[in-house]
Amino acid sequence: MTMAIPGDFTARTEQVQARLTDRNVAGLVLFPSPNLSYLTGFVEEPMERHLLLVVTPAAIRMVAPTMYVEQLNAETDLEHIIAWADADDPLDAVQAALTETELANTDGRVLLDETMFARFVVDLQGLLPDASYGLAGEVLEDLRIIKDDAELTALREAASITDAAWMDVRDRGDELIGKTEQEVVYVLRDAIDAHGGDGFSFEPIVGSGPNGAKPHHRSGDRVIEAGDPVVFDFGTVVDGYPGDQTRTVVIGGEPPADFEEVHAIVHEAFQAGIEAVEPGVTAGSVDVAARSVIEDAGYGDVFLHRTGHGVGLEVHEPPYIVGGNDRILEPGMVHSVEPGIYLEGRFGVRIEDLVVVTEDGCEQLNATSRDWRSR
Ligand code: ZN
Ligand code: ZN
Questions:
Q1: Could you tell me which residues come within 8 angstroms of residue 305 by beta carbon, excluding any fewer than 6 positions away?
Q2: CATH of the domain spanning 149-364
Q3: What is the mean pLDDT of residues 283-287?
Q4: Nearest ligand for residue 203 CA
Q5: Distance, CA 363 to ligand 1 centroid (Å)?
Q6: Mean pLDDT of 302-324
Q7: pLDDT tens by residue, 16-45
């Protein structure tokens, strides 16, 4: 799969190199990950072969299996690729990259990709025994957390396609009765395809009746019945950037006892969370704003998760909207607001939008009705 990621990769790399200098970090080593995509535009799954990007304040080298060289030349501006064939010792290529970037023999700090396989970490520790180690986020998190215009364009488009797909499915109303959750996932997938989305941004959640009380229930063979509350949590992808929204609706029939009240409380908590988002406040304060509504209504112990998470090249990334997080919100950050109440064995309610922090508040990326009535 080839996926174009928007961005000014030269500028991003220069910013990372400046941060390495400022922080007196000797080097940064990435492997196939969102960090690597962010810096180079190259998108690839983690792999067992040594595909590593070495960045120092003065130099950049990509170590890559020969079979990836053509792809890297076509899809990135990387000028120095050290290729190795399957019959070679990949550590010779890694050593060459360390030598050419003057990282060899360093006794300084080296930052490693958070998700790098342990085998590559151990290889690097063997080649750089005198280095000390930290995590790539030290120089990448503050860059990735603020979305530029190209990223915001992709996120807005992903949200609007997600919304359009949701409207298609919601408007089916009673037609969804008698289908299994998994069959409804296929309906969602077809709607996303019809609107031009690039598949699901994560395994979608269709949680009907008591399954809605499990926040990360996937989708199974339970048949949706009239009057079931159903939690729909899904999104699509545009240019590598995800949508992520949740609506809880009742398909046909009358909702169960307490449902209307619980839905109203979650909706009020959602609104309180949205209204709390503005530059200069902490991420934790947004969690408090939403959570206090649910606590005051007596459901605090069944709001089972944080209020939200950042989105970008990853569906879950900083800033995490969680109690105690002192990270200050700034314009250009994008995160979810998604309070929920989960009544075990009965039903769950969650409402989720993505928001962009703006100069004076936030922009909601999702625009569909949050009402529980499916029509
Ligand atoms: Zn979600
Ligand atoms: Zn979410």
A1: 215, 340
A2: 3.90.230.10
A3: 98
A4: 1
A5: 17
A6: 98
A7: 999 999 999 999 999 999 999 999 999 999
